[in-house]
Write the structure tokens for this entry.
Amino acid sequence: MRCIGKNLGVTVNNITISYNDEGPDDVPVIIFIHGFPFNKSMWRQQVDALKGRYRTIAYDIRGHGNSESGNQKFTIDLFADDLVNLMDELNLSKAVLCGLSMGGYIALNAVEKYPERFEGLILSNTQCTADTPEGKEKRMQAIQGIKESGVEKYAGESIKHFFLPASLDVKQKAVAAVKQMIINTSQKTLCNTLLALANRKETCTHLAEINIPVLIMVGKEDKITPPDKALFMHKKIESSQMYILDHAGHLSNIENQYEFNYQLRSFVELISKKLFCLSDTDGN
Ligand code: MLT
């Protein structure tokens, strides 16, 4: 039987995964996958925008938020297997995925390995390329820095890269909430996930095989996964549409939640009308 609510726990690959499951039964299911080093709470505005009409599941990737780490080596492959096992445990044969940055890496990996399990894909502020040698080197320096100077210092430095400079002043509450997510992530998870990110494989060569509807969104000023990365994926995926969001850097779902939610809702409505023959207006 389905449990509805927040901070629910389910055993997946021998660890407890923490998830929120909200919205009605027998409607399309959207699974939200957070970026690094955040947790499922980064999706609150999107879940609130969709949960009246869709079943929304936001979960914590192993080691993050309230999910256990387990003993296996962290890899994006393992995170994708966790996702599909979570779907199995929740009896979901199919879902729409919405992943931001690392969440997008996981979504692309899962769609490549288990294409039959997904009926739509939202790729936000992400990319299909693997790390360059310089990118890997930066991850190793970050690991070194975390070990030497601790998580709080890492949070203080990395937060500047996730938001526009203006948002650091104007959106102080949102910035503080994201910073707290980083501080709440253990040193071990930060280091192990940085290694997983450095070692991830590219997914670009499989993009042309994707034949489900795809929405690609990116913040205009995203310096981590800039718009050209999004455009590259858009060109490779025939069934994709793409939006560049103004006034947004890497965390575009938080910095420009109005536009993000508008595009997200329009996309999900479109695919659910096709797949589930939902009516145009609520209640009809
Ligand atoms: C994220 O937001 O998930 C990270 O910026 C991804 C990355 O570092 O490649």
Remarks:
- The two ends are 28 Å apart (CA to CA).
- The chain is about 45% helix and 20% strand.
- The pocket of D-malate is lined by residues 35-36, 101-102, 197, 224 (CB under 6 Å).
- The beta strands are 5-12, 15-22, 29-33, 55-59, 95-100, 118-124, 214-219, 240-245.
